[in-house]
Every structure is written in C-alpha cells, then in structure tokens.
Design brief:
The protein has about 220 residues and is α/β, with parallel strands linked by helices. The protein has 8 helices and 11 strands. Strand 4, helix 4 and strand 5 form a beta-alpha-beta unit. The model has no long low-confidence stretch (mean pLDDT about 95). The structure holds calcium ion.
Length: about 220
C-alpha cells in the first residue's frame, strides 16, 4: 500500500514514515500544504494521513482541493488538539476519519487499514475471495482453509490484488504501490513475485488464481 503522510512536525513525520515502512507500506512525505497538494494530485495513494495545522496551505484547504480534483482515496486527519470543531470541519471537507494528537501508532495503523479495506468494499479484516482468505491483522493467508507461507513481498502483492479484485493491475501500479523508491524498479522483479505467488496459491496449477493480461498487467481470477 502506498501512503501519503502530510505532517509538518519533522520528528513525528519521520517516526510515522519509519513505522509505516516497517509495516510494509510505501510512504511519501509532505511537510506543508503546497507539497501535500503536489503529491496528492500527482500520485495515486491507497490512503493519506493529513495533519490539519500546516504551513502555507492548511489541511482543510488541501483536502477540499484534493476532493475537488476527484482524488478519492481515504483521508485520515490529525488534529492538534481534541477539538470537535476541527474534526467536523475536516470531515465536512472530505476526510473519512480523524485521530487527535497525541495518538498511539497502533491506533493509526488500525484505522488506516480499516479505511483501505472499506474503500475496497470489504467490511471484515479477513479478505475473502473464492477459496482464498487473507487475514490483514494476523497477516496470514489460507487457501481452502490450509495456511500457506508467503514472504512479506508476496503477502503485500496478494493483499493489493485482493483489494482491487475486478481490475487489471499494471506492473507500474504494482511497483508504485508495493516498492519504496530505493527498491530496484525492475518489472522482471514483479514477474518473479507474481510467479512465486501463483505457485504458492495453486501448486497443482488448476486454479489459475492470477491471470496475465498481455501488455496490461494482472488480474485476480479467484471467482
Ligand atoms: Ca501541524
């Protein structure tokens, strides 16, 4: 998952980047409202965290702008104090959830995951498509009830495909959403990961869980 973190407190922003990255997410950081609008318009995110009190352009104006230009990913706002007015203003500008500072990282992570799965139409934290169950809390995958072992990259790839079940997902999109900028952006790497994931999901070769659409990308074919 690719996350935009908009926060002008450098220490907090750094900490969020480190922890979200450690949890397998690709993180972009913006430290003022102008940068937030640049990143928010330029790239496609799975979710964004936006502090309301920002230099240059305030967080509420950033959210209004992003919604005006049809950016639909979920947005969680951070409010500096426990002010109900800030929460209402942020939600009315187009945010989906809020968290008052200071907060526990675990609560932020749980809320972000809930927003992402809701945006994809899943209510349960266990994503179920066909015979595949992906538990986003335990990070475990079962095929027809049997647990299979995936590496972190394979897990993230399957999670992304399951969150976009009816879509052809290009290699570029997978690279942008699953691999940080310092990771080698070689499309062969994606092919290798998809190949391994296919074999683990379907050792007998009967289920054909991921279809390759030539020249376009991959589509989950579980149903
Ligand atoms: Ca601030």
């Amino acid at each position: 998952m690719r996350v935009l973190v908009v926060e002008d407190e450098a220490a907090l922003a750094q900490q969020l980047e480190e922890r979200l990255s450690a949890d397998g997410m690709v993180v972009d950081r913006a430290s003022d409202g102008r940068e937030a609008i640049y990143y928010g318009e330029e790239f496609d995110y799975d979710v964004a965290v936006i502090d309301l009190g920002l230099p240059k352009i305030d967080g509420v104006a950033v959210i209004r702008h992003l919604r005006e230009v049809e950016r639909r990913y979920p947005i969680l706002i951070l409010t500096a104090r426990d002010s109900w007015q800030d929460k209402v203003t942020g939600l009315e500008a187009g945010a989906d959830d809020y968290l008052a500072k200071p907060f526990q990282y675990e609560e932020l992570l749980a809320r972000l995951k809930a927003l992402v799965r809701r945006a994809s139409g899943f209510a349960s934290p266990v994503l179920r498509i066909g015979s595949v169950d992906l538990d986003t809390v335990a990070k475990e995958v079962r095929v027809s009830g049997e647990r299979i072992d995936l590496t972190a990259y394979e897990y993230n790839l399957l999670e992304y495909l399951m969150l976009h079940p009816n879509k052809v997902v290009s290699k570029t999109e997978l690279t942008e959403h699953l691999y940080a900028q310092d990771f080698e952006r070689d499309s062969n790497v994606i092919e290798v990961f998809v190949g391994r994931l296919r074999r683990k999901l379907d050792p007998s070769g009967e289920m054909r869980p991921i279809t390759t659409i030539r020249g376009q990308g991959y589509r989950l074919a579980l149903e």
